[in-house]
């Protein structure tokens, strides 16, 4: 699998230049011959940006993001700021194949607090 660094080494330019050329950055100015050379090398090496996406390719149950919510469901539902933030985090976690654990922060009458995250097998104990 060809990388931007491979193309840069062959073309004699920096990886940043290759990235900007292949992403058609309109603010990047470079000699047209160099631009053509980079594009041709990428084509010959079958470079494909689609294979270069970051993040896990497959879902991994060991990867997660945790949200600690201070307010109850109704208060969050009625507050568009927190509701939109929560939805955005959910959407990004889904894109990255991350499990989203959401817990509510609550303080008891003895001034102790805890989060009510669901317990999972092999979960680390709460500190």
Compact summary:
This protein has 127 residues and is of the alpha+beta class. Helices cover 40% and strands 14% of the residues.
Would you give an account of this structure?
The chain has 127 residues and is of the alpha+beta class. The chain has two domains: 4-52, 434 Repressor (Amino-terminal Domain); 64-115, no CATH class. The protein is built from five helices and three strands; from the N terminus they run αααβααββ. Strands 1-2-3 form a three-stranded mixed sheet. Strand 2 (99-107) and strand 3 (113-115) form a beta hairpin. Helix 1 (4-11) crosses helix 2 (15-22) and helix 1 crosses helix 3. The longest helix has 16 residues, at 80-95. It starts with a helix and ends in a 12-residue tail after the last strand.
């Amino acid at each position: 699998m060809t990388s931007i660094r491979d193309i840069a080494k062959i073309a004699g330019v920096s990886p940043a230049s290759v990235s900007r050329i292949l992403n058609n950055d309109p603010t990047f100015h470079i000699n047209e011959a160099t631009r053509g050379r980079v594009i041709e090398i990428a084509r010959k090496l079958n470079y494909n940006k689609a294979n270069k996406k970051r993040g896990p390719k497959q879902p991994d149950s060991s990867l997660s993001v945790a949200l600690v919510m201070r307010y109850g469901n109704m208060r969050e539902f009625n507050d568009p700021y927190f509701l939109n933030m929560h939805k955005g985090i959910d959407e990004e976690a889904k894109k990255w194949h991350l499990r989203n654990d959401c817990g509510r922060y609550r303080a008891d009458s003895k001034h102790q607090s805890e989060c009510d995250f669901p317990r999972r097998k092999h979960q680390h104990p709460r500190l």
